[in-house]
Structures are given as C-alpha cells and as structure tokens.
Amino acid sequence: MGASEAILRSLQDTSWIRRMFEEGLRRKERFGTENVFDLSLGNPDLEPPTAFKEALAAQAADLSERLHAYMPNAGYPHVREAVAEHLRRTQGPPFTAGDVVMTVGASGALNIILKTILEPGEEVIIPRPYFLEYNNYLEAHRGVPRPADTAPDFSLDLDHIAAAASPHTRAVLINTPNNPTGRVYTAEQLRGLGELLRDLSRERARPVFLISDEPYRRICYTAQPPPSVFAAWENTFVVTSFSKDLSIPGERIGYAALHPEMGGKEEIAAGMVMCMRNLGYVNAPALMQHLVPEMLSLSVDVAIYRRRRDRLCEALSAAGYTFPAPEGAFYLFPEAPGGDDADFAEALQEENVLVVPGRAFEGPGHFRIAYCVPDAVIEGALPAFRKVRDHILARD
Predict the structure, then answer these.
(1) Mean pLDDT of the 213-217 span
(2) Which of 38, 132, 224, 270 has the lowest tally of Cβ within 10 angstroms?
C-alpha cells in the first residue's frame, strides 16, 4: 500500500462520519433525496446573515491596491485589535492585538498551538466523548491523547481528569459547547479545572495548559453566554472560528487567543506564527480577515436551532430515548437502544435515516444526531427512531 500505517489507522478510526455521509449520498441517488434523512454531518444548513453577504460583496468590489497581498503572518494588526477589543468586552482580561493570531479556522489554530507547545510523547487529556480529529492533530505533532471520562450527563469529571494526568501531561483540551453532546461547562466546573491545572503545574518547569475549542460559543441555549475559560487559569488558549455561528465553514477563518497573563506568552505567540508558516497555512485568508471586524457582532438565528432541539427532545423522549438535553451546538447524543451504537446506526440506515455511532467520538453506546438540517429532514426521520427502537428492544 502507498499510504503510511499511521494514515491508514487514522482513516479507519475517523471514517464513521464520512462513511455515513457517503452512504446517504448513495441512498439519495437510489431512493430520492426527499426520502433520505441525513442527520450525520455537522454542516450548518442556515444561510449566513444578510449583513455578512452584503459586507462580502462590498469587499469583493473594492478595487484598492494590495488588498490580497501577504500581511503579517499573525494577521492584519487592525483585525487582531478588533478581536482583542471584542474579547476585552465579552470575556474580561485586557487583551491586546499581540494576544491574537488569525488562523485558518479553529482546526488551524489547534494545530499551531499543539505544534508549538508539545515535545515528542507529551500527553493531552481530552474529556470524552470528543471530536476524534483531535487524535489526528496530536499524532501529527507527536503528542499522545489521554481520554478522560465525563460524568453521566457529560459534564466535566475532575476526578477522572486528575487520574488521567501523568508527568508527561502538557495540556487539557476541552470543547464547550461540546460536539457531540451539546454540553456547556459551567463556571464552577471550569474553576475546578483551573485549580487542578494550577496544582499540576506547581512543580513543573512548564505549565499544564488549558486549550478550549469554542466554535459553537454563540450557538447556546442557556440564559447566560457560556462562561469564560480565561477566568479559570492564566495559561489558557481559546480557539474558535466563524464556521458554525455564521454558517461559513468553507471560508476557513478563525483565530487563537492567548491569555494576556500566560507565562512566556511572547515566545509562544512567536512560535505559533512560525508554525503557521511551517505547516503551510502561511496566514488566514485575506478576504475573510477584512470582514472580521464586522463579523464579530453577527450570528445566524440561534432560535431556529433551539426550536429544532426542542422538537427532537420532545419526540425522542416520547419514543423512550434517554439523553441530557443539549445546552448548545446543534447535536444530540442519546443512548443507543440495545447498547450497540453501530448496530443501531445500521438499523436506522435501513430506514434511510443516517446518524453517527458514538464510537466515532469515543462514546460507544450512544449515537449523534446533527440537527443543522431542514425541519423536513427532522420530521421525516422521526417515525424511524420509534420503529427501530421498538424492533431492537423486541429482538433483544
């Protein structure tokens, strides 16, 4: 075979989502698009806000010189200052432009952080279930994932995180609001995590960092916005993108923010910028950067996702499914009837409903529903959930 063993392993481990998506395409061709209900992919269906489209059109029509040339690899200074001002206003610490690196989406931000802070063999603790691509990012930068179980309601379990720590621990990577569970970690949980990281860091030459992946931050259904992780621990990175809250995942624009009081911040930020070049990202897209100051105050209509969540929760609860209601993002992560998530997903597939088995997120025994789809897809899928559950329980 031409591909390396590591790549072949990664393809096997992370193929579930793509496999279900491709199966959906085959079934749409066979049975008709209107008869297949694909809830597998987190690809937002809402259109970007009109204000974004208008700003994009105006920017594309701008004939000024040098608008599409290289800029400083960290991003345009005025754009980074706009992000810093937004963070000062919404999250508290005194951010400056030097605390912000514009990136090729949140995944680009995660990769430059991991490459900058990890020595070969160092470990990153990740509460599970989680987005399994994290494992591939770590392997690319010679890091080691250390999954830690969450509580039954998917909130942080600090005892499990502490038990996963070792002398090789370099960071804890969290995702809030969470994919695949929709859980939003509370201020109390984050304070506890910060205290744990402070204790772990006390006798080490380098701190144990907190990295928070937050592309769903604005897709939140709680009364208050998600609490700021920056309040928990000064050695914290936040990575985010505009992919989900503006429905522009194809534009690959995001940023990484470093806590202003992070130890060795200037050296780390310089390392991240160098890693942008080394990894081939070079810089975030110029056209999208020009729009960032206007995008910071925009969002899709989150009430649409809330309504879909409520509809699914009501219908699946009535059908006998067990799950904690998601507090953010656009995913539901119920228990699989019968306990075998792959078997359940295959049975649903025979009814032309596509979901992702929980094992694709280190969460076996559950399955993920992505409700960033038209209402008709949700409504069309609901009868199959009751039918398949009843069939599996009667069979078992």
Answers:
(1) 98
(2) 224
